[in-house]
């Protein structure tokens, strides 16, 4: 039962906790509400628009490979954006420590 519960918990929990934690850590405390709301809104657009767009790509190309390549491309863009945000935050952190 433990392995089943572990796998179910791993699959159900997903990325939401990490996503919301990252969102709240990137903005000043006064902007937490707007940041989480905006983040959920943009994430919901992906859930609503992503599957039909994936299906459209598969229908137009006649192959699932094109759909998965598109998703891989989008994931690459997200990773690059996250790396960019991390480097900006590190630079800000260095500046704050330098002036303290």
Automatic annotation (TrEMBL):
Source superkingdom: Bacteria
Transmembrane portions of the chain: 6-22, 34-58, 64-85
Subcellular localization: Cell membrane
InterPro entries registered for this protein in UniProt: MFS, MFS_dom, MFS_trans_sf
UniProt domain Major facilitator superfamily (MFS) profile: residue ranges: 1-100
Keyword entries, A-Z: Membrane, Transmembrane, Transmembrane helix, Transport
Membrane topology category: Multi-pass membrane protein
Protein name: MFS family permease
């Amino acid at each position: 039962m433990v392995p089943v519960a572990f796998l179910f918990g791993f699959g159900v929990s997903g990325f939401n906790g990490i996503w919301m934690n990252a969102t709240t850590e990137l903005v000043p405390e006064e902007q937490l509400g707007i940041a989480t709301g905006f983040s959920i809104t943009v994430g919901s657009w992906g859930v609503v628009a992503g599957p039909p767009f994936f299906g459209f790509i598969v229908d137009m190309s006649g192959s699932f490979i094109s759909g998965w390549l598109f998703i891989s491309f989008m994931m690459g863009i997200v990773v690059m954006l996250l790396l960019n945000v991390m480097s900006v935050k590190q630079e800000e952190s260095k500046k704050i420590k330098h002036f303290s």
